[in-house]
Amino acid sequence: MAKPDWYDVTDCKTNDAGAPKFCKVSEPGEGTERSCAYDGARVVLMPLTDVIHLVHGPIACAGNSWDNRGARSSGSQLYRRGFTTEMLENDVIFGGEKKLYKAILELAQRYGHEAKAIFVYATCVTAMTGDDIEAVCKAAAERVSIPVIPVNTPGFIGDKNIGNRLAGEVLYKYVIGSAEPATTTPYDINLIGEYNIAGDLWGMLPLFEKLGIRVLSCISGDARYEDLRYAHRAKLNVIVCSKSLTNLAKKMQKNYGIPYIEESFYGMTDTAKALRDIARALDKSALSHAVMQERVEKLIEEEERRCRESIAPYREKLEGKRAVLFTGGVKTWSMVNALAELGVEILAAGTQNSTLEDFYRMKALMHKDAKIIEDTSTAGLLSVMYEKMPDLIVAGGKTKFLALKTKTPFLDINHGRSHPYAGYEGMVTFAKQLDLTVNNPIWKALREASPAEKGSERLAADLEYARGHAERFLSEDISLSRVKVPQKCATVNPQKNSPALGATLAFLGIDRMLGLLHGAQGCSTFIRLQLSRHFKESIPLNSTAMSEDTAIFGGWNNLKKGLGRVIEKFQPGVVGVMTSGLTETMGDDVRSAIATFRQEHPEYNGTPIIHASTPDYCGSLQEGYAAAVEAILTTLAEGGEKIPGQVNFLPGHHLTPAEVEELKELMESFGLTVLTIPDISCSLDGHIDEQVSHLAMGGTGVDRIRLAGRSCATIYVGDSLAKAGLKLKEKFGIPCYGFNSATGLAEVDAIVETLSAISGGPIPEKQLRMRGRLMDAMVDCHYQFGKKKIAIALESDALKAMTLFLSSMGCNVEVALAATRTRGLDSLPCPDVSVGDLEDLEGMAQGADLLVANSNGRQAAAKLGIKAHLRTGYPHFDRLGAHQKMWVGYRGTMNLIFETANIFQANAKEAQKLSHN
């Protein structure tokens, strides 16, 4: 792809001796703090509120990233819907242009009453297959009544900054200047690079209104497509996000004569400077002899007085606190001033996506002894935290859980935050949130010394049924399934995640594991963000950082370099290699590349390497997780003399860390030695250690996994692991017992009976007592469950478990919507079993009393007016404690009963209240 004339490699590649590492291009094997060009384009364009944003590619690009930014809208919510063509394996082989064309027509027909345009985003896979999105968009535009605009920014062409700038090119070429405003004023301005995160724009607009300044176009926070068409008639461009769209401002200056300035609205000092600079520029343009400057001085005096009075109580408590600042671009050097105004000292600062110019600007504002964070990897940030011992960290969401692991207060300043910080009101909010963070009493409690420092035929039949589960499940002819599959070309609000995300989850359950995704760096960024949002943990995952050149000429060298780098730098106990849609489409022979790497680098042969094939266009999270578990066992398990009392436990992807731990303890209560593969109960369970690692720590170790071939039995929970269980049976002769669920009285009874038979011992008294408590809970709560109408949308294993449980409680499960088509769905006690997305759920779940889905299901719940939303599955990010949910075993089933019954009960009371009003 030809580079545009504004492209300057010195922005991201520099040999300047003073340049920190974050100003340089990503290397294979490095962490994935920076994202890709595709993501950068989305950052700029997705805040356009009344536009269909259609991602042309496999599920990963949209499935891992839709609705993950905090840009707010005062009108249309269309921009928050996730639209994708969801390229599958056949589409990759035969080309996706026809599917894209049909998807555009389909979406224009369904959403044309609301949408003012369609933006079509290219991705790595569709760029590699040669789909001509420009031609498709041009052809489709002749059939629909709204503009269809191509955004040709596949992830491998560069980093996030490049994507930002390409998005500006798209706006300039297709949108800006395509219509004329009804009126203009001498004081019309554009805000460029303001994305209205958490409502920042709404803190700035009242200031402009008081001054008589009109924001003609905001590019692109809370933007309407029509507003952006008028941007060429502004008198001044104000760049808010430094460097992300400077190229757009330069083009508008050259071709429309609009001058531009770069400003920030964070903190009183920068807000005052911005208002003064804007006034000066507008007075010059209007030849108005300082009219606007006089208004600004009066406004600043009034607003600063009010702001200082409001922040005084917070400043008193923040004075002398010490902070580490790590965020993106303009916010870093802006926040230096804002923190200083609150009396907070900056110990160290760094940024993810800045240029060399931003670096020097930031350094000039800081104390000479303050440290610039050069290594922005997990290891680098940890070293700064341990060295500086700050009172707080001000950073973005991906750093959040790393900070909290070190028992350090944290304030989110990036796109995931919930509070606006721009303008004078934003400064007050910023001070308040800092105070709530730093002076929360939990920090004192966390730092206190720990206490450590001061029988029958029926049983035989049930056992045989469990033993034959894998063969029975895998023999089902899925071609005869009654499960309905989608016919539409465009997936909307996908409930699927990428297979590579599932494989990452599995690899995180191995001690000292480091995952390496063979693909463009944006893929791993999205996976880290999705898993961090769910588990509230820092996720170790690296990327081979495929670029445009390597995408064309092959990725062997990147993979080998990435392997060498992660082994040398991080010294993992094992490396898990996953593939992406890009590298699978290219046809990279990963197994051969790993074998070649072994031959070329015998010094690294002591580190096992596990490879799982996880192309985006085959399956979803569940399939990727299962593939990784199979790969772990195939690579590491060894045979030998059987170890009495040792059993393999293969937990399904849908089990939380707390649930894995509960089932392990259940098995151990029978006197068995449990070998859990993988084990996320110790690596993703949310505990705080004195030392935090950049590797996955606490899972099952490699040496333990090697013993899997010597176990007496294998037990798995989740149908998708049937193949993994059979692999051990076929290779080592180990009996395999499978269960599709561990939730519900009958389901737990089956597991307990099997454990009793394997161990040869009685059921422990504790379990019998817990069973009695569960039955009591069922009796107490059955009034709330009876005949309730349920709609469920989950990955298949979780869908089966929840459907069986709720049915056993007397509910009518009317809709069961799976993410992928799998075996075992036909037998579910539900009249409508389908495969689909969350848009389909909106059309199927009318009248439901309870919606069971992940956090993304909240849109469907809101649209349908369903108050009861039981959150489970991936991702689960808008409620705390997802990783500690425990709904398995007798005790866990009791927990689930009480939680669901309370939801029903609360809604019943709310309905009664409304009926009285």
Key attributes of the depicted protein:
917 residues; alpha/beta; Rossmann fold; 5 domains; 5-stranded mixed beta sheet; 5-stranded parallel beta sheet; globular; disordered N terminus; disordered C terminus
Task: Give your account of this protein's structure.
57% of the residues are buried. Helix 13 links the parallel strand 9 and strand 10. It is built from 36 helices and 27 strands. The N and C termini lie far apart (63 Å). The strands form six sheets. Strands 4-3-1-2-14 form a five-stranded mixed beta sheet, sandwiched between helices. Strands 11-10-9-12-13 form a five-stranded parallel beta sheet, sandwiched between helices. A five-stranded parallel beta sheet has the order 25-24-23-26-27, sandwiched between helices. The protein is 45% helix and 14% strand. It is α/β, with parallel strands linked by helices and 917 residues long. The longest helix is centred in the N-terminal third of the chain and has 28 residues, at 291-318. It folds into five domains: 31-174, Rossmann fold, CATH 3.40.50; 188-306, Nitrogenase MoFe cofactor biosynthesis protein NifE, C-terminal (Rossmann fold, 3-Layer(aba) Sandwich); 319-417, Rossmann fold (3-Layer(aba) Sandwich), CATH 3.40.50.1980; 493-739, Nitrogenase molybdenum iron protein domain (Rossmann fold, 3-Layer(aba) Sandwich); 768-916, Rossmann fold. Helix 1 (37-45) crosses helix 7 (160-174) and helix 21 crosses helix 27.
